[in-house]
Amino acid sequence: MTMISDNPERRFMAALGARLPRPKAILAVTAHWETQGSTRITDGEFPRTIHDFRGFPQALYDMRYPAPNAPELQDRIEALAGDLPLRRDATWGFDHGVWGVLLPMFPAADIPVVAMSVNHSLTPDQHLELAGRLAPLRREGVMIVGSGNVVHNLRLYHASRGTRPDWASAFQQRINAAVLADDRAALTRFSPGDTAAANAINSGEHYLPLFYAVGARLPEDQAGVFNDSIDGALSMTSYLLGDTRVLAEATASLAA
Description:
By secondary structure, the chain is of the alpha/beta class.
C-alpha cells in the first residue's frame, strides 16, 4: 500500500532517489524470491513485473516496472560469485520486493536491473560472504539494494497494526545500532531465548536481504538510517551505506 498512498516513507524514497548518483545498473536482492540449492538471478531482455500478493486494490496490479536486463552485470555477478552456486533464471521477474523499492526512487524504469533470490541453502555467514564478493560492483557504478524488512511477522501483524510493540521497537533499535557500528555478529548471532529476534526474523527471508547491504559495505562508507518506522509487526526502517549526505538533502527538501 506504500506504493499507492501518500505516506512519509514513499515521499522520502522519492526524494532520496532524486538525489542519489544515477547508477549504471542495480542489483536488487529480494525477500520475495526464495530458492534452495542455488542463488538465482533474473534473465531475459525485459523481466516481467510480478504481482505476488492478493486482496489489494486494482491500482497495485496495474503497476508495471519495465526495466531492462543488465547482461554485463549478470556476467560480473557470476564471475564474482565464483564457487558459490548461482545461476540465471528466466522464469522469474521483478516482484514487489524489487519494484516496490525502485519505483518511487527511479520511476522511469530506465536503469538496467538484475534481481537476485534469497538462497535458503546458505548460512548467514555465507550470505555475508557472497555479498562481500559482490562489493566490487559498487565501485563499478552498480547500486546494491537489499529489499526486505528487519521486523516482519504477518502472523502477529493483524493483532498489532497501528501500534509500536516493545519487542519490535527494541529489536529494531538493536539492529540499527549493529548496522551503524558494522557489528556483524550482532546481526547474525541470537540466543535461543531471544523472543524479540524470533518474532521479528520469523521465517528469515525478509531479514536476509539486509546482509547484502551490510556485506557489500566499502571501507569508506558511512551508514545512515531512514524511514525508521514500525507498524505493529512490520517495519519500514531502511539503511543507506555510502555517502549519507543525501539523507540530509532529502530531509531538507521535504521540509522546505
